[in-house]
Amino acid sequence: MEKLADIGLIGLAVMGENLVLNMERHGFTVAVYNRTIAKVDAFIKGRGASKNIIGTHSISQLAGVLKKPRKVMMLVKAGAPVDEFIQKLIPYLEPGDIIIDGGNSHYPDTSRRTRFVEEQGLLYIGTGVSGGEEGALNGPSIMPGGSREAWQHVKPVFQTIAAKVEDGTPCCDWVGEDGAGHFVKMVHNGIEYGDMQLICEAYHLMKVLLNMSNKEMHEVFAEWNREELNSYLIGITADILAYKSGGEELIDRILDTAGQKGTGKWTVMTALDMGVPLTLIAESVFSRALSAKKEERKSASAVLKGAAPGFGGDRKGLISDLRNGLYASKIVSYAQGYMLMKTAAEEYGWNLNYGSIALMWRGGCIIRSAFLGNIKEAFDRNPGLENLLLDPFFREKVEQAQDSWRRVTTLALQNGIPVPAMTSALNFFDGYRSAWLPANLLQAQRDYFGAHTYERNDRPRGEFFHTNWTGKGGETASSTYNV
């Protein structure tokens, strides 16, 4: 009898190929299919040669070589291709079989697909997979959600192939129902945008204000990576700054425009919909959009004049301040990301384990860092923690970094160097710690021009009032609601 596969995988691009090799290396037999059949044959003859991998040339053949309940994982482009493959798979599956979407799907799509697939008598998982090519091959962070019943069947595979932290705990656990897995992956990617922008702002200040060479900056980032800023992104930044191609430093030959695939934008749009002040990540997304306007920026630079960067102070002191400002801003980035997850959990009824999520991000993924261990400990101390900034560890770290943070952002603004993520993080911190904000005036303005009403600080919350400010208006007020 022909050997049956433990799991099937559709989509042999970079992530798909490497995940298959990861699974096979850990003792699983994998059946593979790709829309372009030649890719299947090339893979089986190439990287998959002499391995427990079964190449198939059709959906029906793929379904026919899988153990029951069948588990089919798709790693295809987000959007319509996912829906198309679901429709193609359903006729060849039986009740209890499992369809898994391992791509970067938008979480509302995953919620919709979970309902649809369950209506067909099947089970569905939408899982975030982070770590890029290296992570897929050697151990990614995996964030599954969807049909709870499916977890027991995919858990042995996912937790075996996932990255592990120091004590062997896998960076993979059940996240929640519907689109919870892809939601957490979306927030992960948003935080990734923030981390990358903060690092770029530190690089900008060192390069332009301190006139540091790439070698000097490499040494600074390498040193930071040995300290509390230790992380994958800090580490690769040090590597990038030291990399040479054809005898010259490659970083200076890369055009200063940044692309994006949409997950950061989704994070910001979701935050706007839910009323969560995700300011740092929003600035990071907008910074990429501004970078893309390269030709317009070149033209503007010829006519718009600003401060000329110059620094004659203590270089080592500024680098130390920069490290502290970066660390404090990073705390705010994660605090905002967790605010978004907590709000979504309340809205969708998800029982998210925030410490477990930090553990899932602790290894394998792009934002992996020592810092995440501190987040796990914060939620271990207080599972109901309202905000990371209120945890004793992070509160102390921000207090220690605060003077440096303010010096760095002030110096950047004085010298005309944009640090939108770092300044928005500081502005959020100052707003969050303010018992009073000037929104009373804003509410008065809204009531003046639109009769939108306001609450009073001498009356119970939930009572709304309207004033005829000019004496010419009526007493009729607009209904009260929040978008």
Outline:
The chain has 483 residues and is an alpha/beta fold. It is built from 19 helices and ten strands.
Helix content: 40-55%
Low-confidence stretches: none
Please give the number of β-strands. 10
The strands making up the biggest β-sheet line up spatially as 3-2-1-4-5-6-7-8
Order of helices and strands: EHEHEHEHEHEHEHEHHHEEHHHHHHHHH
What can you tell me about this protein's structure?
The protein is an alpha/beta fold and 483 residues long. The model has no long low-confidence stretch (mean pLDDT 95). Helix 1 runs parallel beside helix 6. An eight-stranded mixed beta sheet has the order 3-2-1-4-5-6-7-8, sandwiched between helices. The chain starts with 6 loop residues before the first strand and ends in a 33-residue tail after the last helix. It has 19 helices and ten strands. Helix content is 53%, strand content 8%.
Q: Which keywords apply here?
A:
483 residues, 8% strand, 8-stranded mixed sheet, alpha/beta
Task: Record the SSE blueprint.
Elements: E1 7-10, H1 14-25, E2 30-33, H2 37-45, E3 53-55, H3 59-64, E4 71-74, H4 80-89, E5 98-101, H5 107-119, E6 123-130, H6 132-138, E7 141-146, H7 151-161, E8 176-177, H8 180-209, H9 214-224, H10 232-242, E9 244-245, E10 248-249, H11 263-274, H12 279-291, H13 294-303, H14 315-348, H15 354-360, H16 371-381, H17 392-414, H18 420-432, H19 439-450
Parallel strand pairs: 1-2, 1-4, 2-3, 4-5, 5-6, 7-8
Antiparallel strand pairs: 6-7, 9-10
